[in-house]
Amino acid sequence: MSKPQGSSVKQRSETALKDEFLIDAVKFTTEKLKNGKLAATAEHGNWEEWRERGKLIRAHTIAHLDFYLNQFIENARAQGVHVHFAPEAKDAARIAVEIAKHHQAKSVVKSKSMVSEEVHINEAFEELGIESVESDLGEYIIQLANEPPSHIIIPAIHKNRYQIAELLSKEAGQTLPPETKVLAGFARQKLRDKFLEADIGLTGCNFGIAESGSVVIFENEGNARMVSTVPKTQITLMGMERLIPTWDDLEVMATLLPRSATGQKLTVYMSGITGPRRQSDGDGPEEMHIIIVDNGRSLQLGDPDFQELLNCIRCGACLNACPVYRHIGGHSYPGTYSGPIGAVLTPALNKNSGEWEDVANASSLCGACYEACPVKIPLHDMLVYLRNRKVEDGHTATGEKMAMKGFKVLMSSYKLYSKAVKMGQVGQKLLVRNGVIKSQLGPLKGWTAYRHIPALPTRSFREQWKALSTEVEASMPSMSSETKTRLEQMVLNRKKGGHE
Amino acid sequence: MKVSLFITCISDALFPPIGEAMTRLLARYGVKLHFPEVQTCCGQPAFNSGYWDEARASAKTILEAFEDSDFVIAPSGSCTGMIHHYYPKLFENDPILLEKSLQLQEKIFEFSQFLVQVLGVTDVGAVFPHKVTYHPSCHGTRLLGIKEEPMLLMSHVKGMELVPLPYAEDCCGFGGTFAIKMSNISGAMVEEKSQHVLETEAEVLVGLDMGCLLNIGGNLKFQGKPVRVMHLAELLYEGVKLK
Ligand code: SF4
């Protein structure tokens, strides 16, 4: 797998930061998606209101997830669906493999599903000699490259069309020109045969509708529709939080999801699947399975700091808005999910904070993700909560711990703090040249590799305060009665109104 | 009416002229600033790194300093945002300090917010005949919703040409300890930001947060670019003096 090596985001991102092709490709597409979203939400006119509605629907569903899960399962079973529950990734893979074995399947065709990446389903099939083919164009490309997806909705975002042409040419056994039309045409032809051969179709699920036990899939290529209608057996992998109560709620989600993901008003295809083929149906699988996957999701249920994470509709808008993601691409992140949602989700799905790498540190906490999120998940807050958990569990570097101890001592008392500033003013003399500090000081190395540090002025503000305030006060006008009343009124209103 | 200044540790130690500009500018409206000396730092460096116990120790000095103020004003959207947004979380298990946090949350304002929202001033009567570009810092805009205030204040400065900064809303890559822990990513971000600043050909880069300005300014200086970096309070006060 050609994912960059290293056991931390910092190490892996070194590779990405030096890869101009990758950075250009990622910047180009995230920019396009981001602008598309901005245009679509501006055109919508009432975006903030719908965002709030989306958030409420998701929060309500998650707050009553046990109820809606039962309702969903009951209704799906009533339609003839085999519903399975997978507590962990390996259980989901095992269940899928058992279904395949039962049907003596030789090949599986897949549409896009991040959950299937999460539970490593392709590897599980391959072990049994079952061919598993990705039918989404982007997924197909990265499958050929033997890489994991680097974006939630654009899996091959890190590849440019020349690289894609090279991959597909190898598959075609002839040189294909780097033209999107030709490349897509080749893939389509190739995949069409796979659809017809496949014994099993495997799909993901954007939403499960509790009131009818249906599965809803949004897509643009039509491949998910093929996957869910052509093969005789269909397996749908669904994260346990993917539910919404009713079809009416889907209207809100259908407004939020495509606009946030790609800036489209609606995706080209939106399929609603309720049970396997009935006698009156023209197509559809004879047998349908839904595997509901927990794999760490229930850890967030009832956790006030992280429950909102389950509201995510996997639109990818936070990735497109994130300046860190844009610079380092998806493969710098540790898990299946990348960008801000991945930086929170990957640790949150794993109880052991000792195994989180440094992913929660890979954010400047700028909040662009929150601003972009159609269901208002405060990812920037959660990143800080994750850092806090790591500290509380004792999984931090000794140097940092010492530095923070020092911070505590100095900042608890203004006297010590002032003394430290004074010492800095005197002590820096050895380092300052022309008003700036350039030297590669130990812990500040990272800073001075890119920036100068201004020298501390000889006197801090607090040292200047006394003289300054005496001088200013001597000549200042008195406050106008208008301003005075205005300020007094504000203080009064505050006392009446209580806190926000 | 007690209006107090929260200078923030970074402006106290590194950029004293900002506090002076604020003091002198506000005095023109009869606002006499108080400076409670027990204040240290809002605690953000520790808080954002996950060291909440350490952050609380620092934050307590702020709660104590401004307990009996009617208004508190700070030259930073980030530090104001920290108090506004995170103190209630930091002290959620301490009813007394939680109450104090909620009180402070109501009375603290970032510099441009205070001028526009509290004093109702949008034209300070400044003249500043220079080409200027403005970087809106993330915490100010996203945590506190400061968007219009600086624009209103700058739109009234005579002789000033305000050039829009391309990709203005993108983070500059500061992020406190992020700049040190993820120095490679932060470095790439600040280089991109500097590039955009240079594209405007502005003589002056102005902002509301010295963390970000220390970062961008430090990188510009590192590259040997002569862009002057100023806090809006400094720009306005210099403009008033010029008149
Ligand atoms: S966190 Fe929000 S923006 Fe990011 S993928 Fe989930 S729903 Fe979309």
Automatic annotation (TrEMBL), chain A:
GO terms for biological process: lactate metabolic process. Gene3D superfamilies: Alpha-helical ferredoxin, NagB/RpiA/CoA transferase-like. SUPFAM superfamilies: alpha-helical ferredoxin (SSF46548), NagB/RpiA/CoA transferase-like (SSF100950). It holds the Pfam family Fer4_8. PROSITE patterns: 4FE4S_FER_1, 4FE4S_FER_2. InterPro entries: 4Fe4S_Fe-S-bd, 4Fe4S_Fe_S_CS, FTHF_cligase-like_sf, Helical_ferredxn, LUD_dom, LutB/LldF, LutB_C, NagB/RpiA_transferase-like. Residues 302-333 form the 4Fe-4S ferredoxin-type domain. Keywords: 4Fe-4S, Electron transport, Iron, Iron-sulfur, Metal-binding, Repeat, Transport. One of its GO terms (molecular function) is metal ion binding. NCBIfam families: LutB/LldF family L-lactate oxidation iron-sulfur protein. PANTHER family: LACTATE UTILIZATION PROTEIN B (PTHR47153). This is L-lactate dehydrogenase. It comes from Paenibacillus pini JCM 16418.
From TrEMBL, chain B:
Signal peptide: none annotated. InterPro entries: Cys_rich_dom. It holds the Pfam family CCG. GO terms for molecular function: oxidoreductase activity. Residues 3-83, 132-216 form the Cysteine-rich domain. GO terms for cellular component: cytosol. This is L-lactate dehydrogenase. It comes from Paenibacillus pini JCM 16418.
